Amino acid sequence: MRDVKPRLQSGWICGLVTLFLGLSLTGCAAVTQDVDAYYRQMAVNYQEAIDKAKIDELTLQKEARALAVTGDKANYRKAQRELGRIRSWEDHCEWERKRFAKAANWMESHFNIDGKTTGDRSGKPNSSDSAGSSRPEPNMAREIKDTPVE
Asked: pTM for this structure?
């Protein structure tokens, strides 16, 4: 009877380990999708910040021109400093937007986020998935030309 108990305990342990691994892999896929969505949303947010900065820049340029015409040098210099800050912020937002867009494209191409099967198990996206990626489209004319005709 003593030999039966360790076998039952080891069966339970193996079952729990298998269950835990299965659940953790499912969680990993969900986290990967969440991270991809986060990267894409951050790219959109930074694009909106760039658009707002451009509008603010145009408004401030008009104000600075008016101040230059009126001869208010102190407020003109203040407006020029603010324009410099806005331009710096716009450059920063552009750099961050590119960084998040690149990360989102990398996640999509390496983890097959869309859930579409590729036909092979190499993990490479389908050619139809490459619309959002930076990879060039294959030359379809060459592929058709090289296909044997019956």
From this structure: 0.56
